[in-house]
Amino acid sequence: MMRIVVLRLGHRIQRDQRITTHVGLTARALGAEGMLLDSDDTGIEKSLNEATARWGGSFYVRRITNWKNEVKKWKETGGKVMHLTMYGINLPDVTHEILSHDLLIVVGAEKVPPEIYDLADWNVAVGNQPHSEVAALAIVLDRLQKASGKDPLKTHFMGGELKITPSRAGKEVKSR
Predict the structure, then answer these.
(1) Secondary structure of 152-172 in HEC code, one letter for each residue
(2) What is the largest CA-CA distance in the chain?
């Protein structure tokens, strides 16, 4: 079974809090096991840990100080690295290569360091147009999970304090 971890690269505390939180929430909801955060932003870590406690699952956030070391460690254990960039090869053209590997997905915030293009096993695009990194991550996770025979939109999370009961109208949330 493929392991997926997201590396949020270049998070700026004063500017990227909402988007980085959404990267983490998307990663959690669509099947990543955790997120490495290249920042000392304890607020993001706290927010995502609270979401996991409330809604279930085992998603983790770990703040890191040296993204290059994390990438190298990941690769030393046999994992592969996918860098999401609008300049990369389109996802459908490389999905078949990616599926059999543990995957570290790099999602940049600010202009990413040029080294990541060389360290990545794949520089992958979701279309070659400007777009949101959150949307790109969602599409990648959905496509990879489906290609692996899973439907991330039907995942049931264990534990947690709350559970949504799907409804055509209104909101129905139950305590567990």
Answers:
(1) HHHCCCCCCCEEECCCCCCCC
(2) 49
Number of H helices, E strands in the chain: 6, 8
Cα–Cα distance measured from residue 63 to residue 2, given in angstroms and rounded to the nearest whole number: 23
pLDDT digits 0-9 by tens, 89-116: 999 999 999 998 999 999 998 788 999 9
What backbone phi and psi angles, to 5 degrees, belong to 77?
Answer: -90, 10
Q: Does residue 12 have a pLDDT over 80?
A: no
CA distances from 100 to 34, 56, 70, 134, 136 (A): 19, 27, 21, 24, 21
Q: What 3-state DSSP class applies to 120?
A: coil
Name the strand (E) or helix (H) holding 122: strand 122-125
Q: So what's the pLDDT on residue 65?
A: 92
CA 66 – CA 28 distance, rounded (Å)? 23
Q: What DSSP designation does 14 have?
A: T
- What is the number of other CB atoms lying within 10 angstroms of the CB of residue 19? 17
Return d(Cα 67, Cα 151) in angstroms, integer: 30
Instruction: Compute the chain's Rg from CA coordinates.
Output: 16
Instruction: Judge whether residue 176 has pLDDT over 90.
Output: no
Helix (H/G/I), strand (E/B), else coil: 175: strand
